[in-house]
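Two proteins, back to back. First:
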Amino acid sequence: QVQLAESGGGLVQPGGSLRLSCTASGFTFSNYFMTWYRQSPGKERELVASISGGGGSTKYADPVKGRFTISRDNAKDTVYLLMRSLKPEDTAVYYCYADGGPQYEYWGQGTQVTVSS
């Protein structure tokens, strides 16, 4: 059974940091391109950062460049999102997405990140 389990969300003050984790099971993790998305109330889901199967290629959305870092540990079937210098506008539900090609796409259940003083 395929599962993506996110963790690490919570409440943090502006300027603070959080590290999200997404642990996969039920598929060959290293074969999958992994992406973090986020969605705020009233807004469409947007791409935050993505990483190739081997970890050698990454991409970031402009609003998070220089503040967020995506990484993965294929031995642990886990992808991470380290978020620094958090802003109130980073408040959202963060989702993990696995892309192994057509018919091999999976979503996690999401983890809430709230940036507020």
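And the second protein:
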Amino acid sequence: QVQLVESGGGLVQSGGSLTLSCAASGNIFRIIAMGWYRQTPGNERELVATTNQGGATNYADSVKGRFTISRDNVRNAVYLQMNGLKPEDTAVYYCNAYIYTTVTDWKDYWGQGTQVTVSA
């Protein structure tokens, strides 16, 4: 079994900062990619940022220049530093990871979600 545990959400004023953390644990052979997605009520889950095993990153246009994703391959963790937060960043943020549990078996895993609320 593999688990993704997130932390770091909360309430912050517009212009403020938060850092989200996500740690993967369990039967992990190799992690290919990790990332963050977010979802608001009535809307589909959308990509925020991803990073692969080589360190390449990808960001949604709406967060470029404000958010930074980083990864700790030793701790099997991924972080999202969010600066210059705006009310429209309010959402439930989900950690995601593509994880091999054996040489051939891989699966897409999700965390339980953490609420980020940005007040105007």
